[in-house]
């Protein structure tokens, strides 16, 4: 009996689904509609649906990969087995970088929301103290109180879904048809190039709304039947989030019209303008709980990412304290996130999208390779059309490069080069290599049985 009690309970399909919803719906849903509207007006809803379709193509590639592997790690794990140790290592570093960017973006979003009704945070000193204070709070909780993570995750997921439903259901009764014009900004209609510029400027922040799906397979070993449940959950989450975001954007435009582009907290301001302060307060409260929950989740998951690379990084990186917390990973994550928190929200959004792009391309190419070699047969989920979906997903991913700023690309290049240089000075853990070689042989044997 004792041994049975010591086995951790794995996540069910419903739990994985809400984990996915919590990871995808974050600060961007509440803060980016104003940016998106400025570039595409009402047609932003169409751009959102187009972006959702294109991101779903990439999510389907992740679904394919997660049906082949039951281990944790997602992008870096797939790349490790498709293209070798160095590619897996680089992807692992960028996955950690993505987590730090996400944590910093959520902290900046939280403080941006607080600015709207607590003017003290407009002071740079108070803002800096708030950012550092939040990071220290998350650090301490992760050091000593990891059991609170599940509670915060559940409360955060419930708060964001309820907040969006309230906004949509209540807001739809106060829509003014006149607010649905203009459909497209006049500047975007002059020539093809200005239109594509506006489309691209809206595409990047909209893409950010969906990037969280790639974190879902990272903790595969903590889930029941991950090779079957993760593909189904990925599809269910993408459909659910697309519907919620499209309705949210349409209602926001219907409530605020051209004013939407000037709001710092667009959903709260839009509903507040329509029905008064209590509507504004409800959305702000839901936003704060939601954003805090996402930030806290990122502060918990990101150190585990860097710690999982302890076989390819110095051993001390994976060290844990007596509370089973990866304390070195927590410290490294806190320091980098604190530095990133000094940057603007939109820059951090761009960095997150860049890091996501760097994960997507090797994962998509891994789908093509395994489809061609049949090295790791799927366990119940297989992409239709053979190479069609990964081919389209690759084109979409390459399009993203055209929307990055030089500053973002420079930062990504610096991280890639530093990681590559460090790689050749770090001695790998032979036990780690032996473990993966053993696992590789088991997977190959399993593949032979399924052929």
Average residue-wise pLDDT: 83
First CA to last CA: what distance?
39 Å
Strand content: under 5%
Number of helices: 18
In percent, how helical is the residue content?
over 70%
State the order of secondary-structure elements, H for helix, E for strand. Answer: HHHHHHHHHHHHHHHHHH
Structural class: mainly alpha
Radius of gyration: 22 Å
Give the low-pLDDT segments.
Answer: 1-8
How many beta strands in the DSSP annotation? Answer: 0
Name the shape in a single word.
Answer: globular
Note the main sheet: none
Topology:
Layout: H1 2-5, H2 13-24, H3 27-31, H4 33-40, H5 44-66, H6 75-83, H7 85-115, H8 124-144, H9 148-171, H10 192-208, H11 226-256, H12 266-275, H13 277-307, H14 327-340, H15 345-373, H16 388-401, H17 406-423, H18 430-450
Helix pairs in contact: 2-9, 2-11, 4-10, 5-10, 5-11, 5-15, 5-16, 6-7, 6-15, 7-13, 7-14, 7-15, 7-17, 8-14, 9-11, 9-13, 10-15, 11-12, 12-13, 13-14, 15-16, 15-17
What does this structure look like?
- With 451 residues, this protein is mainly alpha-helical.
- It is 71% helix and 0% strand.
- The longest helix has 31 residues, at 85-115.
């Amino acid at each position: 009996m004792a041994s049975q009690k010591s086995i951790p309970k794995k996540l069910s399909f419903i739990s994985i689904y809400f984990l996915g919803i919590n990871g995808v719906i974050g600060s961007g849903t509440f803060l980016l509609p104003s940016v998106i509207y400025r570039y595409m007006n009402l047609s932003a809803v169409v751009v959102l649906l187009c972006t959702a379709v294109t991101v779903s193509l990439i999510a389907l590639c992740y679904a394919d990969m997660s049906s082949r592997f039951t281990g944790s790690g997602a992008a870096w794990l797939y790349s490790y087995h498709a293209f070798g140790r160095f590619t897996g290592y680089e992807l692992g570093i960028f996955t950690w970088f993505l987590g730090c960017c996400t944590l910093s973006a959520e902290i900046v979003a939280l403080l941006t929301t607080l600015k709207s009704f607590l003017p003290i945070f407009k002071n740079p000193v108070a803002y800096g103290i708030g950012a550092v204070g939040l990071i220290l709070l998350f650090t301490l909780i992760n050091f000593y109180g990891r059991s609170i993570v599940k509670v915060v995750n559940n409360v955060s997921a419930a708060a964001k879904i309820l907040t969006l439903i309230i906004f949509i259901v209540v807001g739809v009764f106060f829509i003014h048809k006149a607010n649905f014009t203009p459909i497209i900004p006049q500047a975007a209609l002059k020539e093809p190039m200005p239109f594509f510029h506006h489309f691209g400027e809206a595409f990047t922040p909209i893409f950010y709304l969906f990037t969280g799906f790639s974190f879902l397979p990272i903790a595969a070993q903590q889930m029941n039947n991950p090779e079957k449940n993760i593909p189904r959950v990925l599809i269910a989450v993408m459909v659910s989030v697309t519907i919620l975001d499209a309705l949210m954007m349409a209602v926001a435009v219907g409530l605020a019209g051209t004013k939407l582009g000037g709001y710092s907290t667009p959903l709260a301001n839009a509903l507040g303008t329509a029905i008064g302060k209590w509507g504004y307060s409800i959305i702000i409260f839901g936003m704060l709980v939601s954003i805090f929950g996402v930030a806290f989740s990122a502060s918990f998951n990101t150190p585990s990412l860097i710690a999982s690379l302890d076989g390819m990084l110095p051993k001390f990186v994976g060290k844990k304290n007596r509370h089973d917390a990866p304390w070195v990973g927590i410290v490294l994550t806190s320091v980098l996130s604190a530095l990133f928190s000094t940057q603007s929200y939109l820059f951090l959004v761009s960095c997150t999208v860049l890091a996501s792009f760097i994960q997507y391309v090797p994962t998509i190419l891994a789908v093509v390779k395994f489809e061609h070699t049949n090295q790791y047969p799927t366990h119940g989920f297989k992409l239709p059309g053979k190479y069609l979906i990964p081919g389209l997903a690759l084109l979409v991913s390459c399009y993203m490069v055209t929307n990055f700023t030089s500053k973002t690309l420079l930062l990504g290049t610096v991280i890639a080069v530093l990681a590559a240089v460090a790689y050749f000075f770090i001695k790998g853990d032979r036990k780690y290599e032996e473990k993966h070689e053993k696992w590789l042989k088991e997977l190959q044997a399993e593949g032979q049985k399924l052929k």
